[in-house]
Amino acid sequence: MAEEQARPGLKPEIVSELARESGASEHQIREIVSLVGFDRGSILREARLLKNNR
Prior knowledge:
Elements: H1 12-22, H2 26-36, H3 40-52
């Protein structure tokens, strides 16, 4: 069987920093990353929109 390739992700400390900066939860940050990728500006924009729409 072929080995499963590790999926790239953000380091936990980066996820925590983005969550603090945006007001979103770490779980929400991870979901946003899965949707928009690793661009910091895009992650923060989506996280802030999510927070403001609550």
